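Input set for joint prediction.
Command: fold jointly, output C-alpha cells.
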Amino acid sequence: MSVHNNFIDGRWVPSSSAQTFENRNPANTDDLIGVFQQSNAKDVDAAIAAAAKAYEEWRLVPAPLRAEILYKAAQIIVARKEEFARDMTREMGKVLNETRGDVQEAIDMTYYMAGEGRRMFGQTVPSELRNKFAMSIRQPLGVCSIITPWNFPMAIPSWKIMPALVCGNTVVFKPSSNTPLSALNFVKVLVEAGVPNGVVNMVTGDADVGTAMTTDPRVSVVSFTGSTNVGRQVNQAAAPTFKKVHLEMGGKNVVMIMDDANLELAVDGCLWGGFGTSGQRCTAASRVVVHEKVYRKFVEAFVARAKALNVGDGLDPQVDMGPSNSDPQLNTVMRYVKIGQDEGAKLALGGNRLDKGAHAKGYFHEPTVFTDVDPNMRVAREEIFGPVVSVIPCNSLDEAIAIGNGVEYGLSASIYTQDINRAFQAMRDLYTGIFYVNAPTIGAEVHLPFGGTKNTGNGHREAGVAAFEVFSEWKSIYIDFSGKLQRAQIDTEQI
Ligand code: NAD
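C-alpha cells >
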C-alpha cells in the first residue's frame, strides 16, 4: 500500500494530524489506489509560510525563465501522458480516451502559458504632457490558494497553477480528495521541471484545509472550481481579508435543436455532451430543448443510441461510459431520478443503478433520459452531475432561448440549426460564458476565456490571456523626463 505525503517547501512530509484517507477506484472499490494525508490547518500554515517566503525570490525571476520551467513541465507530461491517463481513469472513472484528453488539456495549457512568459503584454500609451512616458505592467499578487474538484484532475489544476506561476506568484494547492493521485503526478512533474522549493506546495484533505487556505491573511488570491454551494462559502470566507476570489462553479447547460437541424449530428452531440464523463462535466449537456416538429424523431434516435452505450470500467477500451465518481455522487443521481419521476417527467430510458456482475463493485448507473420534461421541474433546473438528460419540447427559437436562460447557471449553451440568423440570435441572447453552434456544450480550447455567468461564476474567466486578470494586477507607471513639475489635468499643453 502506497502512503503519499503533502509537499511543503520542497519536501514530501506527512500531515501533523497523523490522519490519512484512502483513495479507491470508483469502478472497483476493492482496488485501493493509495493512502493520502488528511491534513489540517497547521499543515496549511506551513505551506503558506513556505509559499510566502519563496515568493520574494520567485517574483524576481524573469518571466521567460519561469516559462522555461513550464516548457520543461509540458514536455514531461507529454512523455507520461499514457501513464497519467491510466492513473486518472483508475482514480476517477472516466474512460481512457477522456482522461487522455484531460492530460492533453494540461499539456496545451502548460505550453500556452510557457509562451506567455515572453509576452504578458502591458500597454504603453501617449502621455497628455510633453516629456512624460506612460505605461502599465502586470505584477504578481503573492500566494495563491488553488482549490480544485475531481472531474478534471489534471486539466483544472493546470489552468490555475500555470498562469499563477508564469505571472510570478507562488501556490498552495488543494486537490479534491477523490483525485489526489493525479494531483501528486502533476506536482511531481513541476518538481522535476525545476520549480524552486516553496513555489508550489500541495496539501491534501477536505473542507478544513480549504477554510484555512481561504481565510489566511497571507493569501492574496483564491482560485476555486467546484460546486456553487462551496463556492459561496469560499467567497464569504475570503471576503474579510479582501482576497481576489475567482470562482468556477456549477452548470445546467442547454442544447437547443431547431426544426431545420441536422438531426444525426445533433444526436451525436447530445450523446457526447450528456453522457461523456458520465455527465460529470461542468459543461455537460444535461438539458436538450427540441423543436416540436422534430421532437419525436430526435427522442427516438437519441434514446436508441443512449441505450446502446456500454457502461463499465473506463480502462476497458470497449467501454463508452464509466461509473459515477463516488458513492455520494451516485446517490445524488438516484435521488434525482426519483425526483424526476415524482414530478411527472417521463422516464424514457434507464433510471437504475447497475450493480450486478462486472458492475457489482463500482458506482455504475444506466444512461438515463427523461422526456416531456417541463422546464420548471427540478430535473430541468438543478445540476445533477450524472448520466441523466432531460429532453424538453419547445415550439420556437424564442421559447428555446427563454428555457435556456431560465436557470440559475450560465456556463455553456449550444444550438443546432442550418439557419445563420437563428444561430446569431441565439449566440447573442443566451446569457452564458460559452456558446457553440452545431456542436454540443463541451469542447473548450485553452486559449479562449473559460467560465460562466450567474451562479456559475463571479465575473472572472480562466484560460487564455483572461487568466492573467486573475493571477496578476496592473501597475500604471509614469516617467517624467521634463525636469520640471508637470501637473496632470492642470498644466494643460498648448500647440
Ligand atoms: P465541491 O464543491 O464539493 O469541491 C470542490 C473543492 O472544494 C474540493 O477540493 C473540496 O475539498 C473543496 N472544499 C470543500 N469544502 C470547502 C470549503 N468549505 N472551503 C474551501 N474548499 C472546500 O465540488 P466537486 O464535487 O469536487 O466538483 C463538482 C462540482 O464542480 C460541480 O458542481 C461542477 O459543476 C463544478 N465544476 C465547475 C467547473 C467550472 O469550470 N465551472 C469545472 C469543473 C467542475
